[in-house]
């Protein structure tokens, strides 16, 4: 009986240790990368995508878009950038840079939204991957070190692996949010 309990506990500890890196901590975990990971893959078809135009960027991970003449707020799926607009806390490090990056890349652009799971969050924002031509913008934010992988509630997600690889590349290069030790945590960003 003791042996079975010992091995069950050992197995549980080893499994939990393998999963902690998926939440966006500073722990480095190299993942083999494929070339040109920001290009749309074959499993994403035109019929799954919704055309939109970006009216304005709210912050690094939230945009106002026009879909068929109606303005909608889009919260990017599986990514979190430092806050710039939260009323209950100050502007966080790299928040303005993440917002500027999003503004430069997205404002006025025709984009496509890809849903993967629930379409709206509790604030009635659309939850989506955002494609600019053949590039996944969620992935670009991670790749540039402006975002962490987060809000992983109902896996599996279609683009999870490619997003994890993008985050790991930014971590390895210590880009932006990853350049400050201890800044990125499982709960967000610590000043």
UniProtKB/TrEMBL annotation:
Quick one: where's region Disordered?
25-45
Keyword terms = Endonuclease, Hydrolase, Nuclease
**InterPro entries per record:** SNase_OB-fold_sf (IPR035437), Staphylococal_nuclease_OB-fold (IPR016071), Thermonucl_AS (IPR002071)
Q: Which SUPFAM superfamilies match?
A: Staphylococcal nuclease
PROSITE patterns noted in UniProt? PROKAR_LIPOPROTEIN, TNASE_1, TNASE_3
Taxonomically, which superkingdom?
A: Bacteria
Q: Which residues form the TNase-like domain?
A: 48-180
Pfam families registered for this protein in UniProt? SNase (PF00565)
Instruction: Please provide, alphabetically and separated by semicolons, the GO molecular function terms listed in this UniProt record.
Output: endonuclease activity; hydrolase activity; nucleic acid binding
Coiled coil (UniProt feature): none
Instruction: State what protein this is by name.
Output: Thermonuclease family protein
């Amino acid at each position: 009986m003791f042996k079975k309990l010992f091995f069950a506990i050992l197995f549980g500890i080893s499994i939990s240790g393998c999963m902690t890196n998926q939440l966006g901590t500073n722990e480095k975990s190299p993942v083999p990368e494929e070339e040109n990971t920001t290009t749309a893959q074959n499993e994403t078809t035109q019929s799954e995508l919704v055309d939109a135009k970006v009216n304005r960027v709210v912050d690094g991970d939230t945009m106002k878009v026009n879909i068929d003449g109606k303005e909608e707020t889009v919260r990017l799926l599986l990514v979190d950038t430092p806050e710039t607009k939260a009323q209950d806390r100050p502007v966080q490090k790299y928040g303005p840079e993440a917002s500027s990056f999003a503004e430069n890349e997205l404002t006025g652009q025709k984009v496509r939204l890809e849903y993967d799971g629930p379409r709206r969050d509790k604030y009635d924002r659309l939850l989506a991957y955002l494609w600019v031509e053949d590039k996944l913008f969620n992935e670009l934010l991670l790749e540039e070190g402006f975002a962490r992988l987060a809000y992983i509630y109902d896996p599996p997600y279609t683009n999870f692996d490619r997003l994890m690889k993008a985050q790991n590349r930014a971590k390895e290069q210590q880009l932006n949010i990853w350049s400050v030790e201890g800044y990125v945590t499982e709960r967000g960003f610590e000043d």
